[in-house]
Prior knowledge:
The protein is an all-alpha fold. The chain has one domain (3-265). Helix content is 79%, strand content 0%. It is built from twelve helices and no strands. It has helices at 3-16, 23-34, 40-58, 60-75, 81-106, 108-111, 115-135, 146-158, 166-176, 181-207, 213-240, 247-265. Helix 7 (115-135) runs parallel beside helix 9. The chain is globular and about 55 Å long.
Amino acid sequence: xxxxxxxxxxxxxxxxxxxxxxxxxxxxxxxxxxxxxxxxxxxxxxxxxxxxxxxxxxxxxxxxxxxxxxxxxxxxxxxxxxxxxxxxxxxxxxxxxxxxxxxxxxxxxxxxxxxxxxxxxxxxxxxxxxxxxxxxxxxxxxxxxxxxxxxxxxxxxxxxxxxxxxxxxxxxxxxxxxxxxxxxxxxxxxxxxxxxxxxxxxxxxxxxxxxxxxxxxxxxxxxxxxxxxxxxxxxxxxxxxxxxxxxxxxxxxxxxxxxxxxxxxx
Length: 266
């Protein structure tokens, strides 16, 4: 695959994975709007792996705490902060795994990969994010609770609809639960780790036996570029959230959604 295509693919995935603008929608639209060939499952998995390492690096202290928490949990000490975090991350991931398997088995996921669906979800869930961000409280204190993990997990499952945005949906859920912008984004990013791993395993089953050395080389390049782009985008967003709301992302979603609907209906 041409290096320019790999660069564009990696930048699109890396930049949009953690921003509330739907990375999957942009990956679906990329071949549709540019006329380029679909990148295929192998490269989809590769760029997801790149973004996975980016979020692990950025939240390395939380990830290390959750890893120690797994050990604590297995030893029977389930009251440590790390054990609770690890357990709630697992709970929050269950809905998206169940719904994802259902969509894959029934084939509904392929039917939703259309410009019309993405246009509507971009627009509607962008406005829902704005509403939640404006009305959501910011003074919630205390640790992440089981109830909150379940609620945000359900929001994450809704995001399987192309164009919804996994980060956008989970941040929306977090803001409605009363978490501040930075905390809602932090929980959303941590939730992405087991979700991306689960998605990679699911997609990886389709990759086995298909990749060759040339594809492996392209996948490695795409993963590395996606890692750099994702780390940059994640760092920038978390810094901006100290002083900026999610409104700029909402404006982008609304404009893109309207443009896609105009294309779809004309």
